[in-house]
Amino acid sequence: MDYKDFEDLSFEEIDNEHIKGEWRVENRIFLSNSATNVFVNADKHYFCDNGDYKCIKGKIFNGSWGVVRNDDVVHRPYLKFRLDNSEDSNQEISALITRLQYDKVHSKAQMTIYMSTGAELTLIK
Fold this sequence. Notes:
Number of helices: 2
Number of domains: 1
Number of strands: 9
Strand content: over 45%
CATH topology: Lipocalin
Structural class: mainly beta
Oligomer: single chain
Order of helices and strands: EHEHEEEEEEE
CATH class: Mainly Beta
Distance between the termini: 10 Å
Strand order of the largest sheet: 2-3-4-5-6-7-8-9
Radius of gyration: 14 Å
């Protein structure tokens, strides 16, 4: 995918509407012992309207998600994930959204997230 015609969204603009949909992992960078985490290793991530979350890594894992802002100064957006049916059940993972880009008609997007597990993922939709 050629990203030269993509535009960055400001961090203040990012909300659930920008994130919802099907995202495919384009690139992974493991920065710590995150290689076994289901979130990091999933090939696809589905962020549903109602807060449901699904990821696929050989089988489907279900959970919940949302965009939150924890930092009073910078107000950077984070994704929060929780899985219900895996070895990572009841473990909440946060991921700082470091970049979100859309094409001019908002039909394609690229998102880079830095996960609390120490991995960086680039997702596309």
